[in-house]
Write a structure and sequence with these properties.
The longest helix has about 50 residues. By secondary structure, the chain is of the alpha+beta class. A hairpin with a 5-residue loop joins strand 1 and strand 2. It is about 35% helix and about 20% strand. The chain is built from 7 helices and 14 strands. The protein folds into 2 domains: about 150 residues, no CATH class; about 160 residues, Galactose-binding domain-like (Jelly Rolls), CATH 2.60.120. The strands form 3 sheets. Strands 3, 4, 6, 7, 9, 12 and 14 form a 7-stranded antiparallel β-sheet that branches. The protein has a 5-stranded antiparallel β-sheet with strand order 5-8-13-10-11.
Length: about 375
């Protein structure tokens, strides 16, 4: 083992022995050389291998203690060392070298050939990556110098910059949160506006409305005393039938109108179709003079039971020509495909009994589109 010790000391003299990393590489080179020598000598006995390793570690330990003592003495002579190291600390470097150490062999008293160093440690160069791994695992003394102080300064500067980065990141996060909230509010307002959530039920209802029977004010003649009444569920015996589908002898159609009796599952009725909205498209229903006599000087009610044909809504008009009693003006009603009773009142102040019959004029479509109207009955309730 004296050859190994000599080789280690010579390698330390030819290197930067004050550097702990350099010493660790030399020690590891000696270990590698021992292992290589044992393999070349074909030594496989575990006891012999363990003994050789133990002896080498003892030599390395002794040399390292000497090196540390020398460094401590030199540092005490010049200036206090930046870091004190206890004398009991023993480094265990494990750096590996790029080249194997070739050892000559000699016989020992343990039945095996013991490898010795040939002094070739000076030409070996450590591999930086493996040396770094050895430094990570070995309890070497800390290196304090210009590079160490520069590293600490760089670390302190990095830590000083980090708070500023966090502040900038916090501000960007705050801006993103505010932007997201504003976008959500805008999208919600747009959805409420477009979905009609704030509209009333009537405004949201897009179906075809079924308006009640009304009289258009522009068609009303105030002198006739017309009044619109609500539909009634039935008619009492006081009502007089002016027209029924069973007797159409008192019905006359204009030149641009048609009046056809129809009988099907919907019952007997008179289908009126007006091609135009003027007098040529009217269909007249005659009212006997005896009925007009009962209406003279009183307020009477006229009722029409009607229904739109073809599933279409239609607006029809009604006019009166009651002989010497006068007329009731022109007015319109809107009806759909459900059977309805349209009622209105007329007041005649004249008490003179008419001598000739009157007429009720019906036009099925005041828009001139040619929609049809089914008439089930025309009744009159004379005033009391």
């Amino acid at each position: 083992m004296s050859g190994l010790e000599t080789a280690i000391r010579q390698a330390l003299e030819r290197s930067e022995r004050a550097n702990s990393e350099t010493r660790a590489r030399i020690y590891q080179s000696a270990r590698n050389a021992l292992e290589a020598g044992l393999k070349k000598q074909d030594v496989h006995d575990p006891d012999v291998i363990a003994q050789q390793r133990h002896r080498l570690e003892g030599v390395i330990h002794a040399i390292e203690l000497e090196e540390r003592a020398s460094l401590k003495a030199a540092a005490s002579a010049s200036e206090p060392p930046p870091v004190s190291v206890a004398a009991s600390e023993v480094p265990a470097p494990s750096a590996e070298l790029d080249h194997d150490i070739h050892l000559p062999t000699q016989r020992n008293e343990d039945r095996a050939e013991s490898p010795v160093l040939d002094g070739g440690l000076a030409g070996l160069r450590p591999e930086r990556r493996e040396g770094q791994r050895a430094a990570d695992t070995a309890p070497l003394e800390p290196v304090v110098g210009k590079r160490g102080r520069a590293g600490k300064a760089a670390k302190a500067e990095t830590q000083a910059v980090k708070p500023r980065r966090r502040k900038r990141g916090s501000f960007l996060s705050f801006v993103m949160v505010i932007t997201t909230l504003v976008a959500a509010v805008v999208m919600g307002a747009w959805w409420v506006e477009t979905s009609g959530l704030l509209k009333t039920a009537a405004e949201r209802d897009t179906s075809v409305a079924n308006p009640p029977s009304t009289v258009q004010s522009e068609d009303f003649d105030g002198e006739a005393g017309l009044k619109t009444l609500g539909p009634q569920a039935g008619f009492s015996g006081d009502w007089i039938d002016v027209f029924t589908p069973a007797d159409t002898s008192n019905v006359t159609a204009g030149s641009r109108a048609a009046a056809d009796p129809v009988g099907d599952e919907r019952g007997q009725r008179l289908r009126i179709t007006s091609a135009i909205a003027d007098a040529d498209g009217n269909v007249s229903v005659e009212i006997p003079a005896s009925i007009l006599e009962q209406m003279s000087g009183k307020t009477s009610t006229v009722a029409l039971s009607v229904q739109a044909d073809g599933g279409k809504q239609t607006q029809f008009s009604v006019e009166c020509d009651f002989s010497s009693l006068g007329d009731c003006g022109r007015h319109r009603f809107t009806v759909n495909d459900e059977k309805s009773d349209m009622l209105f009142q007329v007041t005649f102040d004249r008490s003179l009994a008419p001598s000739s019959p009157g007429r009720i004029l019906i036009n099925s479509d005041v828009t001139g589109a040619g929609n049809s109207l089914s008439v089930y009955a025309v009744r009159v309730l004379p005033g009391q």
